[in-house]
User: What shape does this take?
Amino acid sequence: MAYQELKNPIKSKCMVCKYPIIKDQSNRKYCVDCKKLQEKALKKRWQKEHYVKRYKVRICLLCSTLFNTNVSRKRYCTKACQSKAKKIRVMEEQIIRWQEKVQDLRMGK
Ligand SMILES: [Zn+2]
Ligand SMILES: [Zn+2]
Assistant: This one.
């Protein structure tokens, strides 16, 4: 029996599909196909976690509230803050335009 075991050193089965696998390397738990799938899934999960971590907590540019997001472009905590910020931006542009007009008047144009 010892000889037989040596010739066919199948000591484990794939954890997913139960296909017999040769434990020539340490900690082999999956057959070749399942290992590939497993690695793919792990990579996907890692990317997802990495992505979420990257954009996890932000500070609203308007009200300074901390908020969670995975959208990299998001700068405001709520839609209300976003639209308010937009209004402010428009008003600021108007102020600049009015200042320019005042400047023109002063310069005698
Ligand atoms: Zn398998
Ligand atoms: Zn906000």
